[in-house]
Known about the structure:
The protein has helices spanning 2-31, 54-69, 88-97, 110-118, 152-161, 176-187, 203-212, 222-230, 278-293, 295-304, 313-333; strands spanning 43-47, 77-81, 104-109, 129-144, 167-170, 196-199, 217-221, 234-239, 246-247, 250-251, 265-272, 307-312. It is α/β, with parallel strands linked by helices. The longest helix is centred in the N-terminal third of the chain and has 30 residues, at 2-31. Belongs to the UPF0065 (bug) family.
Amino acid sequence: MSRPRTVLVAAGLAVSLLVSGCSALEKTLDGGSVAGDFPSRNVEIMVPAAPGGGWDLTARQFQHVVQEKKLLGERAVSVVNVTGAGGAVGISKLVTKNRKDPHTLMITGLVMVGALTLNQSQITVSDTTPIATLTAEQEVLVVKSDSPLKSLKDLVEMYEADPSKVSWGGGTIGGTDHITAGTLVKAAGADPSKVKYISYSGGGEATAAILSGDVTVGISGLSEFEEQITAGKMRVLATSGTEPATLNGKQLPTMKSEGYDAEVQNWRAIVAPPDVPAADRQRLIDFVTKVNQSPEWAEIRKKNGWTDFFKTGDDATRFIAEETTRVQALEKELGIL
């Protein structure tokens, strides 16, 4: 009678090992790694836009700090650009193709919230796993240096006289730049729905359009136009924050200081795919926190005029959800949704 018992015990052990092995295999195959072992391979940061814009700059500066400080040990971090539909192509890939994988991250922000809302996308930033908000940046309204527009008041008066003669160049339709244009026009008492807005897929394209005169006024983050402003090729009409920004020792006017009750801040964040295991999520938060606390990242913020806007985990998740609701209401009010 002892022999059947031995066979039964052996069979039970085999089943137990098989179940355990399948569970481990599922974790490995469905997320590219066993839960809780981040980083077990190289990390990829997706930029859901063309090179040259604010997301791209944020990702590559982040990559620089990680590599400089060896925050992933011997693991490498790469940056990949995925363009299309104001970030919709990139976030769709993150959500549907990289589920559970903590080694694929994405830079996002207010621009994407606005674009996805406008396009009534079935996928939103809230479908990701927010790791942290990183920075906030004022928008800046610029014209080429030989433009007849000398002040923000000149721009508003031109728009009030004939909206069709004012073209506004910036990022995605419904994004931060577009929202800034509409917010200013609304604050001036004019009709935001008549804003003639031209969207460019990257900061490089927008810069070229402003300098060539293809658009009347350009809108983006200060860091994206800083080189051209410093070189005297662009003139600042106003920034969009509460406090005035300083460039080359000169204080720049804000929309409010120019007499218009308007304010917009462009925030950026880093997110992971949905369903990242809790242990990996915490490791990602710890990893991003180390970047944020480094002197190198502080210097990058200062250089680019970025405000420290660090929120992690549940705080970041709540903030992004609230921003999504706010932008939906704002875009309806501005007549662009």
